[in-house]
Amino acid sequence: MTPLQRLRQPRAPLLATLLALLIYRLTLAPDLTWAHHGGDGGDLITAAVTLGVPHPTGYPLYVLLGQLISHFPAGNIPFRFNLFSALCLALAAGLVAATTRARPGIQLAAGLTFALLPLVWSQAVISEVYGLNLLLVAALLWVLRRPMPPPAARPGLAAGLLWGLSLTTHLTSLLLLPLILWSWTRPPRPVLRYFLAGLLLGLTLLCLPPLLAAGSSPVVWGDLSHPAGWWWLVSGQLYRYNVLALPPADWLPRLAQWSRAALLGYAWFILPLLWLGRQTLLAPGRGNPTWPITLTATLYTLYAFGYHTNDAAVFLLPALLLLSILLADGLRPLGPAALLLPIALLMLNFDGQNLSRDQIVRPLAGSVLRAAPANAILMAPGDQTIFTLWYFQHVEGQRPDLILVDSNLFAFDWYRQRLGQQYPELHHLAEDDLPGFRAQNGTQPICDVALTAPQPLICPAGVIPPPS
């Protein structure tokens, strides 16, 4: 390869990154949002800004980077975190293009196709951890598919570090292990040593939550004062009952729902992959990466399909990234016409993913906070409401006189202990007894708040109507 060719090579990945970022910026949510299963945004943002510990698995890398992002001089704080997601996924799209071994036009088509898939696009315009996870996974795949010049110490260290960091952003990155093993069958000892060193270095971030828990943040999940509490957090034990737990009665409805979504939003993505399967899937030999990449994508798909939550589809994101890398081979016969694929995705999905006018959460939460009686206890019914109120109270400083209590988290000893530390005036926190808690703290107003309900705030004096 000549020096001029080396100079031109990064142009397609860079262009894919810039175009994806431009499209994401045009459709970015301007504020806190619940769209696209973004209800965790308030928890993640509040934990990052106050240097706390969000819901399991604690996401220490996201917290550290979020603390930096929160000081970026653009828009309000939720906008900055939304922009962070956009940047991560735009860079991931560039890495998808760089990882494919094809001509620049095909690289650009593959990178932009990944960026504009509806599920990927949906996570690029809200505050969530999946963008950061996909960026690290894309960087890992880029390292794994590069040639390994001797002594290959640097690629080994980089791959180990990226895999370790990806595990701190989402535990589903464990499913990448078969692909890593295939990429480096019987690697030289220096590669293995450096890989393990990089992995341990990346995983050291998991030691951060106990240090953050010792601070003053109002958002700290789990009792991190002992190893068992730390393991409960970083291993995601709170969600273990959701793994492969989809009831058999729901298999066919989910299969029908996902199949319909695939036909409507992903047909342009699937057809070139079918062509690729016809051409190369049965080709033998280690030079063909189709089998291990397809196997890893299948593992992600099975995990997502069996996960018992309404938003289980988000676990398909790494599978889409893996298949987008294979997509370049399926697009080769199209030549320059391959660029019609991302153009079609852009036209089909722009309106559905456009959150630029999403202004629902702030007025709703603001009206409830303004209407709440002074020094009241607000009882929230779950994540979406409590996370939103955490953000507006602890990040923006609205209504610091209110005491926010989540009815679901009240079942955990560590949560009630944390409430006692934050609000020493509260009584009856020794046991999981909400009726007793209400009775023992009845000297101050206790209101029920559910931001998604027709009557979002109900207090003893009567019902306060929702905002118009």
Radius of gyration: 24 Å
- The percent of residues in helical segments reads 55-70%
Helix/sheet category: mainly alpha
Q: Supply the number of helical segments.
A: 22
How many structural domains are formed by the residues?
2
Mean pLDDT: 89
Label this structure with key terms:
468 residues; five-stranded mixed β-sheet; 2 domains; 57% helix; mainly alpha
Architecture overview:
This protein has 468 residues and is mainly α. The protein folds into 2 domains: 3-353, no CATH class; 361-464, no CATH class. The chain has 22 helices and 5 strands. It has a 5-stranded mixed β-sheet with strand order 2-1-3-4-5, with helices on one face. α20 (383-395) links the parallel β1 and β2 (403-406). α2 runs parallel beside α6, α3 packs across α4 and α6 runs parallel beside α18. The protein is globular, with a radius of gyration of 24 Å. The chain starts with a helix and ends with a strand.
Nutshell version of this structure?
The protein is mainly alpha-helical and 468 residues long. It is built from 22 helices and 5 strands.
Topology:
Blueprint: H1 3-8, H2 11-26, H3 41-49, H4 60-69, H5 77-99, H6 104-116, H7 118-124, H8 130-144, H9 153-169, H10 177-183, H11 189-203, H12 208-213, H13 227-234, H14 251-265, H15 267-280, H16 290-306, H17 317-331, H18 340-353, H19 361-371, E1 377-380, H20 383-395, E2 403-406, H21 413-422, H22 434-440, E3 446-449, E4 457-459, E5 462-464
Parallel strand pairs: 1-2, 1-3
Antiparallel strand pairs: 3-4, 4-5
